[in-house]
Amino acid sequence: MPILESPEVAVVDSPDGFSSGLPDFTTVSYKDAYSRINAIVIEGEQEAHDNYISIGTLIPEQAEELKKLARMELKHMRGFTACGKNLAVEPDMQFAKQFFSSLHGNFQEALKDGKLTTCFLIQAILIEAFAISAYHVYIRVADPFAKKITEGVVQDEYLHLNYGQEWLKANLENCKEELMEANKVNLPLIKSMLDQVAEDASVLHMDKEELMEEFMIAYQDSLTEMGLDNREIARMALAAVV
Questions:
Q1: Cα-flanking dihedrals φ and ψ of residue 185, to 5°?
Q2: Angle of helix 63-86 relative to helix 28-58, nearest 10 degrees?
Q3: Contact 47/100 with Cβ under 8 angstroms?
Q4: Which of 186, 78, 198 is nearest to 134 (CA)?
Q5: Following DSSP, what letter does each residue of 162-190 receive, concatenated?
Q6: Which residues contact 33 (CB under 8 A, 6 or more apart)?
């Protein structure tokens, strides 16, 4: 399976000029916001671990490879847990579980119904593209310890995005209808999730509009690699704004 290369992360000026300086990592406001953002990435990696194990039950012939991806997610979770400890921040895991509850519920329903395409869309396309875009933006404004951890995680996430992308590409003719329907339900959740943490992200010097833009680029690039044409991609992307 070909591996996507992670593009170099360039330090560029964000629309609101945040990148002109790093936030003060020691303030009460920063640590309060970080308690929720850090919890989200920890919970996200745990969800990813569990989801890849679950997907393996639908395609037993690929279960071992999926277990390898799942183990990588646990490594990421430990790394992000260390990031919180480094700043003496206790992650708000209750908030994070609620944050992922809609996507989690939709994944579990699809799993129960044996809808492999929907499971791959939620975990390997939407969640991975969401994570990659957020990590790229965060790296520019992270504390030195977290920056190093996050840079390593991003490299792995491209493997995960690529895994689901390649399965969907190979099965596109048979799964396109389900893909479109699942996207219509789940893509809007990504925007609502970003809206929910916009204020906390701003405290960390992460701009909501930049996060959404980065996500849409990663998401549409993945759809292109899967073999969808421009009209189909436009139809799918429209679900983010309607």
A1: -85, -40
A2: 170
A3: yes
A4: 198
A5: HHHHHHHHHTHHHHHHHHHHHHHHHHHHH
A6: 199, 200, 201, 203, 204
What CATH class is the domain 25-238?
A: mainly alpha
H helix or E strand, kind and range, residue 107: helix 101-112
pLDDT tens-place values along the chain, 242 residues long = 333 333 333 333 334 444 447 999 999 999 999 999 999 999 999 999 999 999 999 999 999 999 998 999 999 999 999 999 999 999 999 999 999 999 999 999 999 999 999 999 999 899 988 988 999 999 999 999 999 999 988 877 666 667 888 899 999 999 999 999 999 999 999 999 999 999 999 999 999 999 999 999 999 999 999 999 999 999 999 887 76
